[in-house]
Structure formats: C-alpha cells, structure tokens
C-alpha cells in the first residue's frame, strides 16, 4: 500500500493512507460469462441514445427557429443559440453520468472508454463492448438542417479541425480522470466532489469554444451516429477527424494524468 506524503501549511508533512486500485486485466475472458458486463453495456447504449436524441434535437430546434424562411421577422434572435446548445450537451452529460456512473461508469463516449482502457481502468473486453454499445445507441433520428452531423466548417483547415478535436477531447478526458481519481477522495476528503458536475462543465466549455469550427465532436459515437442518419458526402469525408482527433486527445490525457501528474507525487512505499 502506498501512503501519500504531502506538505502542510508550515512545512510539516502528513501521511495519508491510500491504496491504488489494481489495474484491470487486458483480456478477461471470464468477464464474458457475467451478466453484469452486459447490464453495463445496456446502460451505455441507453445513455448514448438519450444523449444524442436530446442534444441533436436542440441543435435542430435552434436551426429551425432561426431559419429565415420559417421566422422571417426575427430569425437572428430566435432559438437557444450556441450557448443553449452547449448547455444541452453539458447538461445531458451531467445527468447521464450521474445516472449511470454507479452502473457502467458513465462513459457515454468511445474516447473516454479508450482513455480509461489505456490507463488500465477497464479491460479490453469491456472497452470493446462499451464502444459497440455507444455507437449502436448513437442514433440522432434527424435529417433536416444537417441532421446534427459534425462537419469541418468553411474557412478552417483540416489541421485546425483535427487540433480542435484533440484539444477538446483532452479537456474532457483529463477532467474525467481528475474528477474520478480515488486519490483525490483520499487527499481532499473534506471537499466533496460530485464527479458528473465538472465533467458536464468540461463538455459545456468545450462546446462553446469549438462549435463554430467543427460543430464539436469530442465523441466518436455522437459524430458517427449523426453521420449515419444524415448520410451526406461532406459528413463522411470529415468523419475521420472525429475519430482520430478524439482518440489522440484521450490518449494524451491518459498519459498526462497517469504518467506525469500521478508519477510526480512524493510517495513512500510500505509493504
């Protein structure tokens, strides 16, 4: 067991008990025989389906209300705007992570699952099943007004769009690692942390910054599901950005948290 050594306000050092959870096995065939695995996959499927329906409906509703052919007198000031769309995405993540965290961990995003896999928080079997469930659940059901599909906006280069997705996903996955870190609970037990809240706020803030550039992917299942329903060439041509970017961002966030932030702590090992 490792004990965390920390400096106090006057230079004193206090020792707190802390035990790192064991890393998840890379391949656990026995896990496939347990109902609990499939129950968590169902939770991911339903959560991703609800996430896509509510958020993309918000996007479509805004575009409809601000359509000059529908509202010729006040189109520019109608609808929830980018701020409202960002709130819809962040708010739904807050709600759904809160509801499913105790069941599946509340990933609702293949990039989050990929980052946790790299950090050995979930097994490869569980990660693959989660990603499949998330992509199957991510159906937006809308075709009008772009169907909520992610596309690189005119005037931005491919490199800008890719960097946008990498950085946005890094912010999200880094927040997930920080908010769910068991060491934080041991170290800051006097500060209650409701993990879904900072995760939802991270999604909200990233959407504010990146909606004008890519429509904000940071979730390959969300981008894939909307593209399947919309099914237009531009959405498919740009689709790789919304997979490669988030997976790279998630990998960097996992490495940053696990091998830099956590490795930099002063630890004394007791056996």
TrEMBL record:
It is a multi-pass membrane protein. The keyword Transmembrane applies. The chain crosses the membrane at residues 41-62, 82-103, 124-142, 162-179, 191-213, 240-261. It holds the Pfam family MIP. GO terms for biological process: response to cold; response to osmotic stress; response to water deprivation. The keyword Electron transport does not apply. One of its GO terms (cellular component) is endomembrane system. Its main location: membrane. Signal peptide: none annotated. CDD domains: MIP. GO terms for molecular function: channel activity. Keywords: Membrane, Stress response, Transmembrane, Transmembrane helix, Transport. It is found in: Endomembrane system. Gene3D superfamilies: Glycerol uptake facilitator protein. Belongs to the MIP/aquaporin (TC 1.A.8) family. PIP (TC 1.A.8.11) subfamily. This is Uncharacterized protein. It comes from Canna indica (Indian-shot).
């Amino acid at each position: 067991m490792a004990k965390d050594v920390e400096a106090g306000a006057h230079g004193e050092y206090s020792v707190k008990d802390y035990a790192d959870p064991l890393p998840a096995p890379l391949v656990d065939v026995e896990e496939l025989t347990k109902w609990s695995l499939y129950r968590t996959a169902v939770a991911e499927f339903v959560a991703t389906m609800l996430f896509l329906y509510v958020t993309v409906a918000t996007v479509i509703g805004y575009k409809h209300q601000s359509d000059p052919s529908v509202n010729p007198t006040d189109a520019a000031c109608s609808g929830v705007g980018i701020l409202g769309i960002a709130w819809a995405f962040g708010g739904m993540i807050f709600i759904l992570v809160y509801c499913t965290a105790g069941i599946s961990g509340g990933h609702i995003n293949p990039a989050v699952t990929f980052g946790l896999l790299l950090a050995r928080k979930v097994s490869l079997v569980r990660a693959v099943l989660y990603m499949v469930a998330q992509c199957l659940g991510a159906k937006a059901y809308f075709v009008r007004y772009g169907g909520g599909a992610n596309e690189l906006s005119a005037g931005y280069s491919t490199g800008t769009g890719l960097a946008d997705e990498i950085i946005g996903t890094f912010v999200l996955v880094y927040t997930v690692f920080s908010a769910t870190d068991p060491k934080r609970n041991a170290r800051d037990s006097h500060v209650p942390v409701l993990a879904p809240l900072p995760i939802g706020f991270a999604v909200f803030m990233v959407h504010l910054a990146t909606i004008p550039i890519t429509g904000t992917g940071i979730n390959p299942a969300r981008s894939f599901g909307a593209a399947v329903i919309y099914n237009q060439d531009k959405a498919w041509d740009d689709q790789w950005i919304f997979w490669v970017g988030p997976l790279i961002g998630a990998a960097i966030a996992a490495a940053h948290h696990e091998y830099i932030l956590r490795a930099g702590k002063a630890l004394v090992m007791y056996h």
